[in-house]
Amino acid sequence: xxxxxxxxxxxxxxxxxxxxxxxxxxxxxxxxxxxxxxxxxxxxxxxxxxxxxxxxxxxxxxxxxxxxxxxxxxxxxxxxxxxxxxxxxxxxxxxxxxxxxxxxxxxxxxxxxxxxxxxxxxxxxxxxxxxxxxxxxxxxxxxxxxxxxxxxxxxxxxxxxxxxxxxxxxxxxxxxxxxxxxxxxxxxxxxxxxxxxxxxxxxxxxxxxxxxxxxxxxxxxxxxxxxxxxxxxxxxx
Amino acid sequence: xxxxxxxxxxxxxxxxxxxxxxxxxxxxxxxxxxxxxxxxxxxxxxxxxxxxxxxxxxxxxxxxxxxxxxxxxxxxxxxxxxxxxxxxxxxxxxxxxxxxxxxxxxxxxxxxxxxxxxxxxxxxxxxxxxxxxxxxxxxxxxxxxxxxxxxxxxxxxxxxxxxxxxxxxxxxxxxxxxxxxxxxxxxxxxxxxxxxxxxxxxxxxxxxxxxxxxxxxxxxxxxxxxxxxxxxxxxxx
Amino acid sequence: xxxxxxxxxxxxxxxxxxxxxxxxxxxxxxxxxxxxxxxxxxxxxxxxxxxxxxxxxxxxxxxxxxxxxxxxxxxxxxxxxxxxxxxxxxxxxxxxxxxxxxxxxxxxxxxxxxxxxxxxxxxxxxxxxxxxxxxxxxxxxxxxxxxxxxxxxxxxxxxxxxxxxxxxxxxxxxxxxxxxxxxxxxxxxxxxxxxxxxxxxxxxxxxxxxxxxxxxxxxxxxxxxxxxxxxxxxxxx
Amino acid sequence: xxxxxxxxxxxxxxxxxxxxxxxxxxxxxxxxxxxxxxxxxxxxxxxxxxxxxxxxxxxxxxxxxxxxxxxxxxxxxxxxxxxxxxxxxxxxxxxxxxxxxxxxxxxxxxxxxxxxxxxxxxxxxxxxxxxxxxxxxxxxxxxxxxxxxxxxxxxxxxxxxxxxxxxxxxxxxxxxxxxxxxxxxxxxxxxxxxxxxxxxxxxxxxxxxxxxxxxxxxxxxxxxxxxxxxxxxxxxx
Lengths: 237, 237, 237, 237
Known about the structure:
The structure is a homotetramer. Chain A is an alpha+beta fold and about 240 residues long.
C-alpha cells in the first residue's frame, strides 16, 4: 500500500551511506506522504548494507505503526515532531556525519563563510539550546524535536534545511527524502570548510547579506536562474 | 580443535584492516574461549592480506603456545593480562589508528563531547600513566597490560571498552572479537571528532551526566530500547 | 562543427570530478578556440555522471549561444571575461574544492611555502577584493571576472594560473582545458598543505625568491629541464 | 643486463603511487646494485600509470647514463649523492606526500611523539638547513643531497631512514627500493599524527629515550624479537 514511499525512503537511506555520512547504523532518513498523513522511516539499528524496502516502517503522525515488523528508528519521535510543525518539508535525515557533529559538539552554529553555504542555507546554520534534565529524562527524542522547532521560531525551515542539535549531531530536511539527503551532504561539506576557515583566520566574518541574497536567490525562489529550469521545459540534469 | 575461534579471530583481523585502521601489519585482534581457557591471536608481523585461520596462534592464559607454527603477536602478554583481569571481555584489539593514536601521543584522555561517544563509552576514554623505566625495560608488554588494568581500578571494562596507552596507541575490547573491532572503529571516529571539537572551541566541556546516562543506557543494560532486540525475538539487524 | 572542442571540454569536466574536486554539479570547465573565437562550456546544474559532449554549450566571446539546447553554466560571464582579457589562456575551471575554498572564505592569498607550489605558481596565489554591493547586485558573474582581472593587473596569468575569489572559491586556467584542470588539482593540494603549514608554524614565511625562481623556471620557460622535452623529440610522458 | 634492478625499481615506483603518496608525476624511487656500482631511477616527468621497466634509466654513480632513452629524474643528482655517502642504503625515494611536506614547509623536524615513529625512526626526523643562494643557483639537486648528508653528520642513516628538505619535501631510504617506499609510507603516517598531536597539546614532549630504545630495538638490531625472524627460519610474513 505504501510501496512507493517505502522504496523512496529505502533508496534515500542507501544514498546517505553511499555519500559516506554513515558509520554502522548511525543515521536514518524518513519521508512523508502529506495526503495520506503517513511517515515511512528506517528501522532501528539495521545496517545499511542489509536494508530493503520491506523493512521500512510506516507510521501515522502520532507514531502509531501502520505497517512493518520491526522497531522504527529510535529517533522517530524527533522526525514526527518536525513533520507536524514544519508543514512544507517532505523528508528528514539524521546523521552523525563527522564535521557537522564536530560543530554540534562544540555547541556552535556554522556561520555562512562563503557562497557554497549561501547556495543552500540562507544564513548561519543554527544550533539548538543544550537540553535540560527534564527534557532528557522523559520523552527525550520528542523533546529533541521540540528543541529544534523552538530554535526555528520565526524562520522558514525550507530556507534553512539543517540544524545542529547541541552535543549530538545534525538533522536535515527537504521537499522529499532525496532533498533531505542532499542537505545532509552539503551540510557536511560546509561544516568541514568552516572548520578550515576559522583555523586559518581566527577572526572570521560571515559573508555580506547582499552576497548571501545573491547566491541563495539565484538558486531558490521565483527569480532563480541556476540550472536548466527555464529552458524548453527540460528537466534539470 | 580450536578451528571456530581461529576463524573468528582471523575474520576480525581482516575486518580491522577493511575498516582502514591498519597500516602494514600494525595491529592485532585476539579472542578467548573462556570455557577452555584458551586465547587465539594474530601471528607477529604478518600482513593482513595474507592472513589465514591456520596462521592464528593459540595459547593458554599463561602464554604457553598450544597450536601454531608462528610467533604470536609481540603484544600477546598485554592481551593475556587483559583477559586475566577483565573477566567479562571476549575479544581484544590493538591498533595504531590515526586519531586514537594522536590522543595517546598527547597523553590525554578523550572527553565525552557528544552522544556519538556516549552511545558506546560511558564517560571519558582514559589514558594510562606514562610507563616508568623499570616497566619498560623488562616485561614491557606485560607491564603495558598492567598499566591498563591499574587505570581501570573501580571501572567496569564492559562500560568503557577502550583505553589509550600513553605515547603508544589504543587497545579496545568487547564481548567477542567482532565487538572489539567495533569498539576500535567507533573509538577512531570519536577521537577524530573530539580533535575537531577542541579546534573550534578551545574551552570545550563534556556532555552532562544526564545526557550521558540517557544515551549509554538507551543502548546498553536492561532497559535498552535501541535496535530490534525486543521485537518478536528477531536478531538485531 | 565544434565537435573536437566539445569533446575536450566534456572530458576535462569529467576529469575534474574524477580528481574529487566536485560535489554534485558544483563546478565547470570551459575551453576556447582562439581562431574561431568560440568558447565551449558545461551546461548549468548538470551532473558530471550524466555529461555528454552533445550537452556542451558553444558561445561566442560576447555570450551569444551558437550551439546547444541547454543553459550554459551560470558562471559563463566570468569565463568569457577571463578569455577576453587573458589572451594566452585556453581553458578555465571553477570549483568549490575544499581547501582552496577554505582560503577563499578566509579571504587570504596562499603564500608560497614550498617547492610544490613553486613548480606551478610563480608566487603567492592571489585572492580578489571582496565585491561591493553594486558589483554583486547587477552582472554579478561578469563582475566576478572583472574582480579577477583587476587583481591580476601587472601579472602574467600564465605564470599564475589560479585565483581565489573572496568568500567564494577558486578559478584556475591553463593553455587548454586539461591544463586548467591540472591547475585546479595542484591548487587544491597546495591549499591543503599551506593550511597544515600554518597550523604547525603560526609564523610561517614564504620560500625565498631564489628558490621560487629555481623551481618555477626549472619547469617553465625556455631553460626548463624537467621532464622529457629535450630528449630526441619524444613526447613528455 | 640490468633487468632485475629495473623491474624492482619500476615496481617500487608503482607501489609509491598505490600508497597514495603521489600526485601526477611528483616523486621517484631509485635502487642501487652496489656490486656493479650502478643506479636505476625513474625517468623525469613520466606518469606512474604509464611506467614500464624499460623506461627506467640506469646510470653509474657519477651520473653517466648507461642504459635508457629518457631523461632520468631531475632529482637524480640528489639520489647519487646519498648513495655515494650513505654506503649502507640500497634504495631512495622522493615524494611530496602531504603531511611530510607540511613539516618540511614549516622547516621543522618531526619529534618522536609515540611508538609508531619509534618502531621505524630512531629519534626526531631531521630537517635540513634552508639552502643558501649559491647552493640553489648552481648544481641545486646535487647540493640538496649535500645538505642532507651534512645534516646526518654523526648519524647512522639506516637508523633514520628519512629526512625533510626544508621548504621542499621528504627523501626516504632503506636497504632496497621496497624498504625505501615503506619508509615513505610510515613517514607520512607519522607526520600526520604528529600534526594532530601538537594540535591537541600545544606543549608536546617527545617520548623517553628508554621507550624509544625499547621500540626501535625490538624491531631492529641483533636482539629484535618482533615478527617471525627467529621461528624455524621462516620468512617474516
